[in-house]
């Protein structure tokens, strides 16, 4: 059998993660909010829960603002929505200024009609032996039917959730040590660098990869470099970065 060069190129072609480019963060966030709203309405019609995986940080702020607007101005109900957040600092009180539990209430949960018991954010106050808690978090995601849409941001070093470069592709919810570069990047939220926790609870790359759809948001020029590395990087590089492991 003779195979021509074109066929070899097709066989060897590298499938990249699909990338949508938007004029700005607001437009991009609106497009993602529309997709989430369509899922919620579709699940409402089927009398099923819509399960969302959510992130914190500056990246999803416009998305949450748009979901709140859809609720207030266009009557989008979140009564059938169940959410699971990616991560939380450890240890931290849920009402601390930097807590991701607090962030989610301030940016989303307090402004929509989602039942409080449907909102799951890792608890930064659980005793340090968190294995049972972490396993229960994973089981709760499964019991809800698995995540329909997982929203992610990406750190400048390629971390997703608090899965730092080198995290295992099969990792699950666990206690992790934050990279110094991540602590430095997040130091602006704290009064000084020494106040930034050294640990965090995060769902794993394996947890994220189980989601039916993953949407990673990255806005602005400063994120372009890490997005390029994640999408177009060499396989060696990809093995070290958590981000490209996401489907
Ligand atoms: C937070 C999270 C992190 C952030 C990342 C980017 O829940 O998952 O991985 O997405 O640190 O942060 P921002 O959006 O502030 O640039």
Describe the structure in your own words.
The chain is built from nine helices and eight strands. 35% of the residues are buried. The chain is globular, with a radius of gyration of 19 Å. With 247 residues, it is of the alpha/beta class. Helix 3 (61-74) links the parallel strand 1 (50-54) and strand 2 (81-85). It has a single domain (19-242), classed as Rossmann fold. Fructose -6-phosphate binds next to loops.
Task: Break the fold down into its secondary structure elements and pairings.
Blueprint lengths: L4 H8 L12 H21 L4 E5 L6 H14 L6 E5 L1 E4 L9 H8 L11 E2 L10 H13 L5 E4 L21 E4 L2 H7 L12 E4 L2 H5 L3 E4 L4 H12 L2 H6 L7
Helix pairs in contact: 2-3
Fructose -6-phosphate (F6R) binds next to loops.
Task: Give the neighbour order of strands across the main sheet.
Answer: 4-2-1-5-8
Strand tally, please? 8
Overall number of structural domains: 1
- Secondary-structure-derived class: alpha/beta
Rg over CA atoms, rounded to whole Å, is 19 Å
Run of helices and strands: HHEHEEHEHEEHEHEHH
Using the coordinates above, name the CATH class: Alpha Beta
| N- and C-termini, Cα separation | 34 Å
User: Under CATH, the topology is which?
Assistant: Rossmann fold
Rough shape? globular
Q: How much strand content do the residues show?
A: 5-15%
Unreliable runs: none
């Amino acid at each position: 059998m003779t195979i021509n060069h074109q066929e070899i190129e097709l066989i060897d072609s590298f499938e990249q993660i699909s990338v949508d480019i938007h004029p700005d963060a607001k437009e991009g966030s609106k497009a993602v909010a529309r997709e989430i709203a369509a899922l919620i309405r579709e699940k409402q019609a089927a009398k099923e829960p819509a399960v969302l995986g959510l992130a914190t940080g500056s990246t999803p702020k416009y998305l949450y603002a748009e979901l709140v607007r859809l609720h207030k101005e266009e009557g989008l109900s979140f009564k059938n929505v169940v959410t699971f957040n990616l991560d939380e600092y450890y240890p931290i009180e849920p009402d601390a200024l930097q807590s991701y539990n607090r962030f989610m209430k301030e940016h989303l949960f307090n402004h929509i009609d989602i039942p409080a018991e449907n909102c799951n954010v890792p608890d930064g106050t659980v005793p340090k032996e968190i294995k049972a808690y972490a396993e229960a978090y994973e089981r709760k995601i499964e019991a809800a039917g698995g995540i329909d849409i997982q929203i992610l941001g990406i750190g400048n070093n390629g971390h997703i959730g608090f899965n730092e470069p080198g995290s295992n592709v099969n990792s699950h919810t666990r206690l992790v040590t934050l990279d110094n570069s991540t602590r430095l990047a997040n130091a602006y939220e704290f009064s000084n660098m020494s106040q930034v926790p050294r640990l965090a609870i995060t769902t794993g790359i394996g947890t994220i990869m189980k989601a039916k759809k993953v949407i990673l948001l990255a806005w602005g020029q400063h994120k372009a470099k890490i997005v390029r590395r994640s999408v177009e990087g060499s396989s060696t590089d990809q093995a070290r970065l958590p981000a490209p492991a996401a489907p």
